[in-house]
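pasting for the record
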Amino acid sequence: MHITSKHKERIIQELRAYINAHPSENTIIFLGDYVYHFSYDRTALLSLYHFFVELFEQGKSVYILSGNHDRLGSSFVFEEAQKAFSIIQKYDTKHQGNLHFITQPTVVTIENQKIILFPFMLQVPEQQPKQQPSWIKNIEYLATSSNKNEQISWKINNCLAALLEQYPDSLVIHHYYFNKTKFPGQKSQFSYKDIALSQELLDMPDIQFLSGHLHQAYSHKNYLCTGSVRSTSPLEINQEKFLFQYDTANKTYNADPIRINPYLQYDQGQKISQETLKETIFQQTINSKQNFLGTQSIQINNSDFIPSQYISITIV
């Protein structure tokens, strides 16, 4: 999300409209990275917090996962809010809504679907599976690595293995990379030195993975990355952004475009008009569909693009 004062009103306006358009949805999950580069715009962050409270007052169950950007020193950016709400909810057990700030692995059941919430952690629990699976044995060398991030990778993989041992066939909602995997539409690959999960997890069809983290939406095998809600730099030229709705009964996704501040590329000398903007955005949506190559059932919805005073478009 990487919320800033420049885009906060538009972001919250779009999120509010999307949630209001799906009134029967009582569970809202935010996937992390609320701020940018470990610093924050206090005004924007407070506006986002007020939006979380608004959803709480409506009786929604809201899960707010911590991301790798969401820390100030050794603290989660919403740590004070997390403490306050834990006290409030301890004494107010009648209120239908809940705000869950997820900074440690948490297992929940939502509409009969077992879900492992696996946020980016500053302190990783020392958990190990009772029976070590082969994919953990294959990365034992990480335990004695001289690289700090590889040691953390060893810990997070063991922690997840312990949870999957208890809760197989789960949906894992996380905030980590996968090791040495080329994903659709992505130029970069990551490794255990970047803190990553084992790529062998992607070949386990009984488990499903879902994350934000990377800014472009795509799917690959059993993994769906939802991307970010807005563009943060010209590196995200011609990327369509989406909001996702998950049907737990049918295990299907609906993806709706969200256009906060698209970066659009035009040929030199090309005339820019409302019609060419619409055509460029339409083509962007078509191209984005090519990045969804996983096993998930994803319905990508088209929507009319109407330029207005509320949208920030960058032409490059």
